[in-house]
Write a structure and sequence with these properties.
The complex is a heterodimer of chains A (310) and B (430). Helices cover 76% and strands 2% of the residues of chain A. Chain A is built from twelve helices and two strands, in the order H-E-E-H-H-H-H-H-H-H-H-H-H-H. Chain A is flat, with a radius of gyration of 26 Å. Chain B has 430 residues and is of the alpha/beta class. Chain B has helices spanning 2-20, 22-28, 30-36, 50-66, 79-91, 104-112, 131-134, 159-164, 173-185, 199-213, 216-223, 232-246, 263-269, 281-289, 332-342, 345-354, 369-380, 388-391, 394-408, 414-428; strands at 40-46, 70-76, 98-101, 138-139, 142-143, 146-147, 149-152, 154-158, 189-192, 273-278, 297-300, 315-319, 322-325, 358-359, 384-385. In chain B, helix 4 links the parallel strand 1 and strand 2. The chains are: A mainly alpha (310), B alpha/beta (430). Chain A binds chain B through residues 21, 24-25, 28-29, 31-32, 57-62, 136, 139-140, 142-146, 160, 162-167, 170, 249-251, 253-256, 267, 269-275, and chain B through 5, 8-9, 12-13, 15-16, 19, 83-84, 87, 90-91, 93, 109-110, 112-115, 189, 196-198, 251-258, 261, 263, 266-267, 272, 394-395, 398, 402, 405-406, 409, 411-412.
Chain lengths: 310, 430
């Protein structure tokens, strides 16, 4: 009896020891990546929060600790709120227009029509171009006098529109470009997910006499929900962080019509020399993105817990 | 199996160690020692590509010839990235020894944080510079930068279009308004404006304020002595701008037209528009993009306002490059020598002959007729107005451009714009 116990204890001891060994090995393997991650990701995030508590012009100029004053100023800053509103528009456009469009494009690519290979390439092209090139291309597309967009508008008998110059149309004009640019990205995600749906499900549905629409809503769509969740996270975080295309196409103007949090942060930091305040804006962006991802994850967790199929 | 584990662990440790110690290896290679060991190194940053860069490189070569123990590391950074890169370099405590600026408020930010070397007591002949230009990099009587290029803002016009409609170069603002009406009747866009970047439109406010109230208005407002940015003259200048907009003086949608992408210039080249108020950089752009246009092109200064107090010889101009030395430069004496070479008569002569830009040095003549015209304008000018967004502190300069864009877009009244400027000025200026 005694011996049995001791051997059992020995086994437990040994496995504990082995586990420890394993942990060390794992830690060693993780270490290089962790180092890179800490230096390039964690440290800047912490530093941003630290800078946001200072009044600092950038450079080696003096840094004065002002506590949360930057945050109180920010919350009363009208430009920040209107910029955030523009980011919200961007999120709405991304989630409710861009993602469905990507889904639609993916569906088209799975349908038995001629020239599917050509469509495949055409659909994906916008995503392959660099944002700077796209920005410049669309600046010319929107040209009020010589631009193709206005020629189209005039064919339909409307007055030419000063797309990027009018405060009412500038935001819409840029949103259109973003949708055009990134819809193919979601298309690829959906396409990949659709390939993974087992054919048997469709065959079974056909035997049951389901039509195309029924098949979509009962099989394809539920199977794609995890991809839709991932896409939404990417779209929301991407929309909050957006900068480049706005910077190139409008620079936030005219007035503040297309100012987004990213361009506003850039202006405060690198043009107005308010590095502390710019860090506060960056910290706010981080918090907002973090919260939105958290919310989505909670919903997703609950959905899975409810026992959704896939 | 155990052996395998051990081996693996050893390998990982080795890799980590290797990753941590590249610096040892780098410095122990004999080659790099030989190259840099004896030579003193000066880092030099500028923003100009093309011919201007060639001119600088020649100056650097002359400098290196005179100082054989010095090596100059030249880095050309595109204009759009430069301001950001400089802020980062200054923040990181590793600024270049010699660097480009535009003088004015941007340089003053760095001067105030103790980053820029005071040049006043150095062995430099300041009399060779046009005084009005040197003022742009002088703060509290101390000089912090030496100007080389000077780019006046003038009206470029299409001589063919003017001849076709029997128009003369306008001497007064009223004549300009008449020309605008005639061109509109004949379906020609009177003035091309690419105002997405906001500075081209701001030229109009700057010039109109100068012509209305003279150069003292801005100086008083800037130094907080006497009149302010809410002076009736500024409101009036804004009203004149809105009058131009309502008269259809500009191409439609100008607030969305990017300057760098070239749509505004295209209107000029293609003859769709007749005039454009622009920096002297337009000459270079034109020679690159549409050389045929050169023979059709003429130049005139902003016309006089009959009821205005301003001197019509006054010009607005931008200074670029202005060379400065970092306060933290290791070989400060040599860095000063380098900026002297970069503003020497030889450099200036090459600059005016080849870059299509005038210089801030006196007594230089150019073989380029446009540059000579600009030099004459500078010589005749009673005063030079440097662009507000380069003179004023950045936040105020940006507000000036933002509000002027809104005045042009008719989304803000001149009174509102002037009031906003004045309240921001009270915050930003002592």
């Amino acid at each position: 009896m005694n011996t049995v116990l001791s051997t059992e204890a020995a086994i437990v001891k040994q496995s504990k020891k082995q586990k420890q060994k394993k942990a060390v090995t794992i830690a060693l393997f993780v270490l290089p990546a962790l180092l890179v991650y800490s230096v390039f990701i964690l440290y800047p995030i912490v530093a941003t929060f630290q800078y946001s508590l200072f009044s600092w012009s950038g450079g080696q100029g003096e840094r004065t600790f002002i506590g949360l004053q930057n945050y109180t100023v920010l919350l009363a800053d009208q430009t920040f709120w209107s910029a955030l509103q523009n980011n919200m528009m961007l999120i709405l456009a991304s989630v409710f227009i861009q993602i469905p469009l990507g889904l639609l494009m993916a569906l088209v690519l799975f349908s038995p029509i001629k020239g599917i290979k050509l469509l495949n390439v055409l659909y994906f092209l916008p995503y392959l171009m660099s944002t700077v090139a796209i920005g410049l291309l669309w600046i010319f597309m929107y040209d009020p006098i010589n631009g193709p967009m206005n020629q189209v508008v005039q064919w339909f008998g409307f007055e030419p529109v000063a797309w990027l110059a009018d405060q009412n149309t500038a935001m819409i004009a840029v949103l259109l470009v973003i949708i055009w640019q990134f819809a193919p990205f979601y298309m690829i995600l959906f396409k990949a997910a659709m390939v993974g749906i087992p054919d048997e499900l469709y065959e079974a549905a056909e035997i049951d006499g389901a039509n195309g629409i029924q098949k979509f809503f009962s099989i394809t769509f539920p199977a794609l929900i995890p991809t839709i969740v991932t896409s939404s996270i990417l779209a929301i975080v991407g929309s909050l962080k957006a900068f480049d295309i706005f910077y190139i196409m409008t620079g936030g103007g005219p007035g503040n019509a297309t100012e987004i949090v990213g361009t506003y942060m850039f202006k405060q930091g690198f043009i107005h020399f308010n590095m502390g305040y710019a860090s506060t804006i960056a910290a706010m962006m981080f918090i907002l993105a973090f919260i939105s991802v958290l919310i989505i994850q909670v919903f997703e967790y609950r959905r899975k817990k409810r026992g959704a199929l896939l | 199996m155990k052996k395998f584990h051990l081996l693996l662990r050893a390998l990982v440790i080795l890799l980590v160690l290797a990753a941590c110690s590249p610096s040892d290896e780098g410095s122990s290679t004999p080659d790099s020692n030989e190259q840099n060991g004896d030579k003193k190194v000066i880092d030099f940053w500028h923003i100009d590509p093309g011919v201007r860069e060639e001119v600088y490189m020649e100056a650097v070569a002359r400098f290196e010839e005179k100082h054989s123990d010095v090596q100059v590391n030249v880095l050309q950074i595109p204009n759009d990235d430069y301001k950001q890169r400089m802020v980062v370099a200054m923040s990181g405590g590793n600024p270049p020894d010699v660097f480009h600026s535009w003088g004015g408020g941007w340089l003053e930010e760095f001067v105030q944080s103790g980053q820029v070397k005071n040049l006043t007591d150095e062995d430099i002949d300041f009399s060779q510079f046009a005084e009005v230009a040197l003022d742009n990099s002088t703060y509290d009587g101390n000089v912090y930068g030496l100007p080389l290029g000077l780019s006046p803002y003038v009206f470029y016009y299409n001589k063919d279009i003017f001849a076709e409609h029997h128009l003369e170069v306008p001497e007064t603002y009223d004549e300009l308004l008449t020309i605008i009406d005639v061109l509109n009747e004949n379906d020609v866009i009177p003035i091309a404006l690419a105002n997405q970047p906001k500075w081209p439109g701001a030229f109009f406010l700057m010039y109109l304020a100068d012509r209305l109230a003279g150069e003292d208005l801005f100086l008083e407002a800037y130094h907080r002595q006497g009149r302010g940015f809410d002076d009736p003259a500024y409101v009036q200048a804004g009203a004149y701008i809105q009058e131009l907009v309502e008269r259809n003086a500009f191409n439609p949608g100008f607030n969305g037209i990017s300057y760098d992408a070239g749509q505004g210039r295209q209107l000029m080249y293609s003859g769709q528009a007749a005039m454009m108020l622009m920096t002297s950089g337009f000459v270079n752009n034109m020679r690159d993009e549409s050389p045929d246009f050169e023979e059709k092109m003429g130049v005139f200064n902003f016309p006089a306002l009959s009821e205005g107090e301003g001197d019509p010889t006054n010009i607005s101009a931008g200074a670029s490059p202005v060379w400065s030395v970092s306060e933290h430069a290791e070989h400060a004496d040599l860095a000063v020598e380098l900026i002297k070479e970069l503003t020497s008569a030889e450099t200036a002569q090459a600059f005016v002959d080849r870059t299509g830009t005038a210089v801030a040095l006196t007594g230089i003549e150019s073989s380029d007729p446009y540059v000579q015209t600009f030099m004459d304008m500078i010589g005749k000018a009673n005063s030079i107005q440097f662009p507000y967004d380069q003179v004023l502190p950045p936040a105020l300069g940006e507000l000036h451009k933002d509000t002027t864009q809104e005045i042009l877009g008719l989304t803000m009244t001149p009174e509102e714009a002037a009031a906003q400027m004045e309240s921001k000025a009270q915050e930003e200026l002592e």
